[in-house]
Amino acid sequence: MANLKYWLWLTTRKGLTGRHLTAVLDHFGSPERAYFSDREEFKLIEGLSAAAVESLCQKSLEGADRILGDCDRLGIQILTMQDAMYPGRLAAIHQPPPVLYWKGKPIAFDEEVAIAMVGTRSATPYGVRTATQMAMELVRRGAVLVSGMAQGIDAAAVRGALQAGGTVVSVLAGGIDVVYPKEHRYLYEDVAAAGALISENPPGTEHKGSFFPIRNRIISGLSVGVVAVESPRYGGTLHTVGHALEQDREVFAVPGPWDAPASEGPNRLIQEGAAKLILSAEDILCEFYDRFPGKLGRRGTMDPQVASQRLEGAESSRAQRPEPRTRQRDQEKIEVDNQPEAAYIDWKECREQLTDDQQTVLLALTQQPVKADDVVERTQLPARRVLSALTILQVQGYVREESGKRFSLAVRLKME
């Protein structure tokens, strides 16, 4: 218990990003050693801001005690990276969460075919029905469904998996006890009973917009594959897919009408070869039979009448209120200099849609084409992560591929 307090102390320091937490743990080896270190030692860690150093010098454990009390009262378990139950596949990603807050059943993720399903909040009826039915089939065949708890595709997938009696995991951006959106309270309870609610943020944390992109790396990190059902060209879905590619996960996409805005993201992933086109749950699960022998059933598809009845049950449980339209991003770029292929975009808004690797790669490019090896040299990132970042940047229209496997900026970045 005493050791756990140091983990909670470290992960609640203000001014420390995931990259900084990883750097601190790499430097000291444990939160306890960091706790008993001083200001001069903290200054040796590259990249720490003055505010972060000051926060690390604050040694009060009152916050940790409060979190422990809240978790005990709410029935929330705390996992640290040193715990045996902490998923190994999550620990292996870039900047893994040092602490997980967990409510529900224990799940041995490393032994499970965990499939993440992601998509837009502004889902079409086609997307909702597809996510619901595919989630049903996946869990019925033995997979574990991983998703968020947002309206639209997330909620449809979760409801479908619950209707089929499967194991469902929802990764949240805020505290487990803070229901978001409010109308999903009963869905929270159902997921906790049928699977688990997971967050890297302590109880009481509000679901801030900036937390969702950070959360996405956990959704893909817990999974062996990620399915994109519906998504515009920019947004959280492509952000999660970017993490999945960087983490060497399988990526799948559901095609949609060529002129449907909600299907532009998946269609372009398929076009760029970043995702496998899928038409059924079998198209996903066939990739994992050999890796997880005996784990997945090869049963046929659900009887159409039964599937229809369960779909109706899932749809009838949806809150009867309109889902909010997602905020339009910088999709309509400003054309200047009569060069529509090199429009100016605001870097501050652009970076909200990108992972750390994608930001690094984008800043390393210019309008002059260069080979991927040159980008690897400039960024000092592993080649696989550079190629994954380049793929998503192409899908989003920030980068173009030239002849000879060379890459250049398709936009101009407004840095001020």
Features:
single chain, 416 residues, alpha/beta, DNA polymerase, domain 1, Rossmann fold, Arc Repressor Mutant, subunit A, 3 domains, nine-stranded mixed sheet, three-stranded antiparallel sheet
Mean pLDDT over the residues: 87
Helix content: 40-55%
Q: Strand order across the biggest sheet? A: 1-2-6-5-4-3-7-8-9
Name of the top-level CATH class of the largest domain: Alpha Beta
Query: How would a crystallographer describe the biggest sheet?
Result: 9 strands, mixed
Give the strand content. 5-15%
The shape is globular
Number of helices: 19
The unreliable regions are 317-340
Oligomer: single chain
| Tally of distinct domains | 3
**Structural classification:** alpha/beta
N-to-C span: 47 Å
Please report the total strand number as a whole number. 14
CATH architecture classification of the largest domain = 3-Layer(aba) Sandwich
Any idea what the radius of gyration is? 22 Å
CATH level-3 fold name of the largest domain? Rossmann fold
Structure write-up:
The protein has helices at residues 2-11, 18-28, 31-35, 39-42, 50-56, 62-74, 88-91, 125-140, 153-163, 185-194, 211-221, 236-246, 264-271, 281-285, 304-316, 347-350, 356-364, 372-379, 383-395; strands spanning 77-80, 99-104, 114-118, 144-147, 168-171, 196-199, 225-228, 250-253, 276-277, 343-346, 370-371, 399-402, 406-409, 411-414. It has 416 residues and is an alpha/beta fold. Strands 1-2-6-5-4-3-7-8-9 form a 9-stranded mixed beta sheet, sandwiched between helices. It has a 3-stranded antiparallel beta sheet with strand order 11-13-12. The protein has a two-stranded parallel sheet with strand order 10-14. The model is unreliable at 317-340 (pLDDT under 50).
